[in-house]
Predict the 3D structure of the following.
Amino acid sequence: MASDRLLGRKAIVTGAASGIGAAAAARLRADGATVFTADVQAPDSGAKVDFVADLTAPDANARLVQAAVAAMGGLDTLVPCAGISAFHPLEGHDDAYFLRVLDVNLVAVFRLIREAAPQLKAAGNGRIVTIGSTTSSHGDEGLCAYAASKHAVLGLTKSVAAELGPFGVTANCVQPGAIATPMTAPAFADMPEFRTFWENKAALRRLGQPEDIADVIAFLCSDDARFMSGHGVWVDGGAMVRH
């Protein structure tokens, strides 16, 4: 349910053309935030993305922060949602793909946080919400690169929380379970048994939707979560409590 609890906040959301990023941008706006969106491509729906760029480019995140600050008059909230994943068995898993996943899911997130840190510190109540995964805590077969990147995002978030906490900045990592997004759709289509597995594994007996994650992101960006920092928050429908 929309509210005004983020009224006055100025946020960057990456990966905003679809999936969790699009849902997060919509939810933050519904709660009153001004949102500057970024993605590697414009959305198929025709919805507007403010900054189109490959955020793995060395200078892209600095340019993104500059553009966002110029457009919004400041920056106090950061939600890097951009990410990639695909199944690759360990044998035959080439270096190029592994490094590409790390670049998108980890290095670009690090660079964005680094470039935004002065603005977040100056705000006095900055918020960072990264996107991890249940694989941040539990690996999974065929997901060596993805799991490694999401383990690292969780560690990065905890370290950032420690370093920026004295400036009033909180940093938390949402750890989704199996979510129905354009990124996961090919795997679910190619392997219906995989979809069924995750539906049955969840205590709630369904896949998550992007809005399920966006609602938690909005909470973590709000003053309701003002004393919560350095945590990984599972949003998985109870999947990881069922072994």
In short: The chain has one domain: 10-180+210-235. The first strand starts at residue 10 and ends at 14.
